Amino acid sequence: MRRTHFDDDNLAFGEAFRTFIDKEMLPHYLDWERAGIAPREVFTAAGAQGFLGMQLPEQYGGGGTGDFRFNQILGEQIMLAGVGGAGLGISLHNDICLPYFLHYCTQEQQQRWLGGIASGELITAVAMTEPGAGSDLAGIRTSAVADGTDLIVNGAKTFITNGINADLVITAVRTSAERHKGLSLVVLERGMPGFERGRNLDKVGLHSQDTAELSFTDVRVPAANVLGEIGRGFEYLVSNLPQERVSIAIAGVAGARAALNWTIDYVRSRKAFGNSIGSLQNTRFVLAELATEVDIAQTYVDRCVTGLAAGELTVEDAAKAKWWCTELQGRAVDKCLQLHGGYGYMLEYPIARAYADARVTRIYGGATEIMKEIIGRSLKLG
Ligand SMILES: Cc1cc2nc3c(=O)[nH]c(=O)nc-3n(C[C@H](O)[C@H](O)[C@H](O)COP(=O)(O)OP(=O)(O)OC[C@H]3O[C@@H](n4cnc5c(N)ncnc54)[C@H](O)[C@@H]3O)c2cc1C
Fold first, then answer.
1. Which of 47, 154, 234, 296 could form a disulfide bond with 120, CB atoms 3.0-4.6 angstroms apart?
2. Which domains are delineated in the chain?
3. How close is the Cα of 378 to the center of ligand 1, in Å?
4. Where are the alpha helices (H) located in 204-340, listed in sequence order?
5. Percent of residues, the chain, with pLDDT higher than 70
6. What is the rounded distance in angstroms from the CA atom of residue 161 to the CA atom of residue 92?
């Protein structure tokens, strides 16, 4: 079935980004995987070529487009090329952090930050999760207490993507005891006294992605670094989660398709018992099932992206996309690794890295169980 979702501009943008990946990312990717981090220069190189901040106004060096298909095609190319670890930081910057800056910055904050976000000189992160609260977002305890017009922030965050590289960290803090209305967002900047980064965490996969602990000890945050209005942080986070979840779903389907592509190539050439592995009925059935599931999931995700642009995407629909596509990704990498035999377990093969990388997509951005809770609630079962 011909996919009609992208227009010519989207496709040209995707091709240009694939060239960028081939030139700037793939040659160094395994080094970054070993180092546990991709260098900041990847962001500035991406920014210089227009691959950051597509939604930001042109006056700040952004692309001036509201078309999320540009983000989608970047996310897909990252997964198809097998550079999901380092690519996640770019997707997080573009798809997940940028909307907060776009929607809630004052004019002064826009002047201060948007140019650097578009150029890649200011790398962004969003810090919600704490050692004691993940799924239960309203349970966070990092406190921000008023001192004159400043806020004094104390607490800790964990599992923060771009946690080492980030210059601007959108941080969820508690400004009052009210469970939901007590949350606010502040932007913590690199170098603020009392803002420390902990370990770059040692993960199962996504090795070239820096994921870190952050700690805050009496960090003095000026009023000029509050994002939006005090007390509306929970509302802001919840309203941006559908885009975050669609972004993860996009990568999920593309990750499943990448696994399928690599495996089709592999089973065509690998021989056993005198024939190619691909000629075995089991292989054909496994790959036929995956090819079907990927195409059907893709259609739903494309519809979500259209709905997102039209402002129609519901929280429930985004939750459906997220859990289904990430579970599909998990099934795909597992079945495809199996068809690679022992080579599939070797990290020099992209399928092995994809297997390890994929496990977290069912957890971050809201775990599968939370997605089902959201959908289940919408069914008003009593
Ligand atoms: C690599 C990585 C990158 C991440 N990046 C970021 C980031 O950039 N910023 C950020 O803020 N966070 C980030 N996270 C954190 C991530 O979003 C959380 O790990 C996730 O939301 C789950 O929270 P938790 O780990 O505290 O698990 P918990 O909330 O403790 O959940 C544990 C288990 O219980 C289940 N569970 C919890 N509540 C319910 C319920 N009501 N019903 C049924 N089951 C339930 C969960 O589904 C899960 O299976 C990242 C995590 C990882 C691993």
1. 47
2. 8-122 (1.10.540.10), 125-229 (2.40.110.10), 235-378 (1.20.140.10)
3. 21
4. 233-269, 281-309, 315-339
5. 100
6. 8
